[in-house]
Amino acid sequence: MDLCIIGSGYVGLVSGACFAEVGHHVVCVDNDQRKVDMLQAGQIPIYEPGLEDMVHRNVASKRLRFTNSIEDGVDNSQVIFIAVPTPPQADGGVDLTYIERVAREIAGVLKPNQYRVVVDKSTVPVKTGEKVAETIRRYNKQAEFDVVSNPEFLREGCAVPDLMAPDRIVIGSAAQAATDLMKRVYEPFQAPILVTDVNSAELIKHAANSFLSLKISYINAVSAICEATGADVEMVASGIGMDKRIGRNFLNAGLGYGGSCFPKDVKAFIAIARQLGTPFHLLEEVEQINARQLNRFIDKVRDALWVLKEKRIAVWGLTFKPDTDDVRNSVAIDLVNRLVAEGAHVTAYDPKGAEKAVDWKLIDPAKVKLTSSPLEAVEGAEALILATEWKEFANQDFPEVKKRMHTPMIFDGRNLFDPNTMREMGFTYYAVGRSRPNAAS
Ligand code: UDX
User: pLDDT confidence of 438, banded at 50, 70, 90?
Assistant: First the structure.
């Protein structure tokens, strides 16, 4: 099939590459000429495992191309996906100006007798599909089209496998012709397809992300109780996770959730519910637990070091999760900035995220020393904080880490390390929701 994706960000670019991979002809449209130039030159603006090869392969086989022309995309495609950003507004609501503009632009280039399915892939509040349809109709009375909601559930860092083998495909559609075309788009993926009305599909995305955030906050609240009682949150998570009704996934206690989806989507769902007159107070508590989790962790570091001012603290990890270079809304970045604000001398290392953290002005390189290796970061440090659980951090030469540190003290914000091993090696080791540090060292 001939498909067009408008917006070549995380969702748009990965979706485009995966659609091409299964045999569709895909044109990715972006209004950022610099990005289009990069992609046409074979450069991938984001780091996502497996993406670069997939893009190159499909460009070479002429199934994937890039343009800045919406007209080109709309003219040559049966199905048009909208995958532009829907950033948060100050009040927690969702800024839909990019979606509205794209709807107008599509209306401007749709020709009569040229039936098109316009698919909303961006995360949007319920009833956005209706607005998109109204807008296209308002600006093009003759357009023949249907609007479908098809939320995307991919996770950064494993976006390619998530998209190639999804748990489910949700198609929110009110028209049989559109549903049939969408089923053909997704047939090669051999995943279960749930067809719903448009409003339900839109709600599914916010409800799913809010529920996952709730699971994380739940286990983080339990981790506080574990710390107060000497219980081990990892064991509690395993114990409750073995119940199939609950499941072990997304019960990893840590510094809290971050990234460009969960914080924004929980906030948006709270705002949407409020606007509809059906307030969702449970989600307000989810947010508060998430904020408290970082506070509690910093308190722990402060308690151990007495004062943070002038302390040399190494931080491993800046991205909001491993296997991505994305540092937006990263709890690790918040942590670094709060340590700096208290006067600590922070040295940080991240395998992929440091450059973007500086480019996007999320950390000030004059205040945070960035190193090119984890060992360099711990040189002379009085404490090491593990903020993002990159696999390479688990495989470090810990005797060497200990030798280089001024004081062998580790705060594991993601429960990556084995407490006994760390203690046997002579580290004073603190984790989240796990037994208290030994008296060693
Ligand atoms: C999420 C959803 O998983 C995905 O379906 C949706 O399309 C976009 O939002 P993403 O933000 O890429 O994906 O990452 P995810 O792996 O879900 O992690 C989000 C945050 O939660 C990270 O900060 C992660 O560290 C944190 N997290 C996750 C936990 O703290 N504990 C867990 O058990 C799982």
Answer: low
Q: How far apart are CA 398 and CA 393, in angstroms?
A: 10
Q: Which ligand 1 atom minimizes the distance to the CA of 321? A: 25
Asked whether 171 and 121 are in contact (CB, 8 A), the reply is no
Looking at ligand 1, which residue's alpha carbon is closest to its atom 34?
250
DSSP assignment string, 203-259: HHHHHHHHHHHHHHHHHHHHHHHHHHHT--HHHHHHHHHTSTTT-STT---SS---S
Express each pLDDT in 116-171 by its tens digit. Answer: 999 999 999 999 999 999 999 999 999 999 999 999 999 988 999 999 999 999 99
**Alpha carbons 272 and 264: distance in angstroms, whole number:** 12
For residue 144, how many other CB atoms are within 10 A of its CB? Answer: 13
Q: Which of 183, 148, 166, 188 is nearest to 20 (CA)?
A: 188
Residue 441 and residue 407 in contact, taking contact as beta carbons nearer than 8 Å = yes
**How is residue 190 written in tokens?**
């051999």
* DSSP-H helix ranges across 242-364: 262-275, 281-305, 331-341, 354-359
- Distance between Cα 157 and ligand 1 center (Å): 10
259 lines ligand 1 (CB under 6 A): yes
> The whole model's pTM is what?
0.93
CA distance 266 to 261: 8
Q: Which residue has the tokens 């969408």?
A: 182
User: By three-state DSSP, how is residue 162 classified?
Assistant: helix
35-46 pLDDT per residue, tens:
999 999 999 999
Indicate if ligand 1 lies below 6 Å from the C-beta of 218: no
pLDDT at position 437 over 70: no
- Which member of 4, 18, 226, 261 is catalytic? 261
Q: Which one of 86, 261, 323, 388 would you pick to mutate in the ligand 1 pocket, going by the greatest count of ligand atoms within 8 A of its CB?
A: 261
Catalytic residue list contains 261: yes
pLDDT at 92: 84
H helices then E strands: how many in the chain? 18, 14
Please state which of the ranges 85-94, 219-228, 268-277 shows the lowest mean pLDDT: 85-94
- pLDDT, residue 441, reads 37
